[in-house]
Amino acid sequence: MKQYLGAHLSVGKGYKDIVERAIAIDANTFAFFLRNPRGGSMRALDEADLAAARELMAEHNFGPLVAHAPYTMNPAGNKESVLEFADLAMSEDLTRLDYLPGSYYNFHPGSHVGQGATKGIEKISEFLKRMLDRELRSVVLLETMAGKGTEIGRSFEELAQIIENVNRPDVLGVCFDTCHVADSGYDLKNDLDAVIEEFDQVIGLEHLKALHINDSLNEVGSRKDRHARLGEGTLGWDTIVKLITKPEFENIPKILETPTDEAGYAEEIKELRQRSRQ
Ligand code: ZN
Ligand code: FE
Ligand code: FE
Prior knowledge:
By secondary structure, the protein is α/β, with parallel strands linked by helices.
């Protein structure tokens, strides 16, 4: 089957460069930060570079890209400055993504920092209603979270609630992170089909738009969020391969966020392509 596989790469040398490096590791999608992930500003707009990147991706039949919001973004926070940064960061990022139409933009829904999950979900929902109230050429994705600290999105129910509140299924979906889902307590290794069935029941598989494929250093339910390289964690190759070869995920971009470098990603992509052909 066709597989859109890629990894999280650095856009430090521009967009044409990142596409070239993706091609070099046999990727046909990738993830990237539009700004410094620790909250910095965005790189200067270079329309020629973006056009060259688009052309190269079309030539190589890339699938949708999966841009990642900054980690410091917390639309469920309790400080004015934190909430203002969330609005600014996502609206600037989405505007920049207009140059890469058809992309996904995934974000960690947020942490309620003691205000309670109900309040957090309410704040994230209101935030998304503001962000999505404009012309969009990309689709925003809520990421499934491990549940460390006061993270929202540690259960399918929490994400379903946000999706229901926002009520914009045309521009809001889910990015399913295997390490996070296992860490939050879903037994992907022993019960893969049941977990996917539960996702379908609670959220609806039609909302699942991207996969982050990571192994986990910790046991199911640990809520730690420590990624491992494929096959070097508690999920193992079989779980990952079983998941990505599900026919319903055929056209979905699958992104590695494993602790390695580009040579390591090249190895993992090669092995994923081999194993998913069998
Ligand atoms: Zn993430
Ligand atoms: Fe992730
Ligand atoms: Fe993570």
